[in-house]
Design goal:
The complex is a heterodimer of chains A (about 260) and B (about 100). By secondary structure, chain A is of the alpha+beta class. Chain A is built from 10 helices and 4 strands. A 4-stranded antiparallel sheet of chain A has the order 2-3-1-4. In chain A, α1 runs parallel beside α3, α4 runs antiparallel to α10 and α5 packs across α9. The longest helix of chain A is centred in the C-terminal third of the chain and has 25 residues. Chain A starts with a helix and ends in a 13-residue tail after the last helix. Chain B contains 4 helices and 2 strands, in the order αααββα. With about 100 residues, chain B is mainly alpha-helical. In chain B, strands 1-2 form a two-stranded antiparallel sheet. The chains are: A alpha+beta (about 260), B mainly alpha (about 100). The interface between A and B is medium-sized, with 34 and 29 residues.
């Protein structure tokens, strides 16, 4: 196995190098006690020798492809898929209302829905963040869930976009539904309690919690593109460093190189 | 000192040697084992710079010898290293 690998590694050296050194290099390998570190050493030697003879275009293309592939592969290993369930709600008014109270109504709804007790209830009911719960305090889990929830007013309309992002599509949808139910319950409760200023408002579900059809993040195309750009940058640095250490032709004064 | 270039030049300062003989010699005098890829990387660079050259060979093993330019380079590098060694020794004594 080692013998085959080392013979294969010799073939990885540039053809011009092989024409000049292959016979004596093979003789050295026959003499030496080859171990796995030698296999790696010959492989690295081939890589170095190749890069010293490559043109800028070849270096740039290789580094860019390697960067894109590496970052793309790392994104699969290190960044788990996230699924986002969306819903759209609309604010309803029963009668003429005081301007500004709508914002107050929404803020109270959000405070209720994002409260510690409400979120812990959803986390436990939907069995969310099981891995994190094994190592993190519940307060941190609640904070993490708050980051995964998004409330956004759609332009200047009375509609709100509510979303929840999670690592499992079905759990994302079910939890999103729980959030919507919680918002609706808080709305009814405020109306029933005749809360001053906001009791005239209500909520209507325009779009129920969606079942995500595919992951919403990470965007692996963007990650691979960043890897490609980083590869190009590294290629430019490599070529610059190589140019600085370009050797003087044979016969020149040693220090002139 | 583990710079393969200097190690190879130091080995050849004694006389012509082929690759395996250099590996053995370097292991003996510097306690550094150069891998085959590293050794031939250094040999390639040194030959390009004109600091070593191949000599007559009877078989597949190719001996190399140090050139005058290579010897000058080695002397200059050793003089630089010698300064560092002396400075380090002085400072250790006064520390």
């Amino acid at each position: 196995m080692r013998e085959r690998l080392i013979r294969f590694a010799i073939r990885l050296y540039p053809a011009s190098w092989r024409r000049r050194y292959a016979v004596e290099f093979a003789a050295l390998l026959d003499d030496a006690n080859r171990d796995w570190s030698d296999v790696l050493d010959v492989l690295l030697g081939a890589l170095k020798m190749q890069t010293t003879t490559w043109t800028f275009g070849k270096i740039a293309a290789s580094f860019a492809v390697a960067g894109a592939v590496l970052c793309g592969a790392l994104s699969f290993v290190a960044i788990p898929d996230k699924y986002t369930s969306d819903a759209v709600l609309r604010l309803q008014t029963a009668k003429a209302v005081i301007p500004g109270n709508a914002e107050r109504f929404v803020i109270i709804l959000m405070e209720n829905t994002l409260s510690r007790s409400s979120l812990i209830d959803i986390i436990k009911k939907q069995n969310l963040y099981t891995r994190e719960r094994a190592s993190m305090p519940l307060e941190d889990i609640v904070e993490k869930m708050r980051h995964d929830i998004s409330f956004e007013r759609l332009g200047k309309s009375e509609a709100f976009h509510v979303s929840f992002r999670y690592g499992n599509a079905l759990q994302a949808q079910r939890s999103e539904q729980e959030l919507i139910d919680s918002l609706m319950a808080a709305s009814v409760s405020m109306r029933n309690a005749d809360t001053p200023g906001v009791h005239s408002y209500g909520l209507e579900v325009l779009d129920p919690a969606s079942l995500p059809q595919g992951p919403s993040s990470p965007n692996r195309l963007v990650i691979a593109s960043l890897g490609l750009a980083a590869g190009l940058l590294l290629a430019a640095v490599t070529v610059a460093v190589r140019a600085r250490s370009t050797v003087a032709p044979a016969g020149n004064s040693p220090k002139s190189s | 000192m583990s710079d393969p270039t200097l190690l190879v030049l130091t080995s050849l300062a004694e006389g012509p040697k082929h690759g395996y003989a250099m590996m053995e010699d370097i292991q003996h005098f510097a306690n550094v084992r150069l891998g085959p890829g590293t050794l031939y990387g250094a040999i390639t660079r040194l030959e390009e710079r004109g600091w070593i050259r191949p000599t007559q060979s009877q078989d597949r093993r190719q001996p190399y010898c140090i050139t005058a330019a290579g010897r000058r380079y080695l002397e200059e590098e050793l003089a630089g290293l010698d300064q560092v060694v002396k400075a380090a020794s002085r400072r250790l004594k006064h520390a």
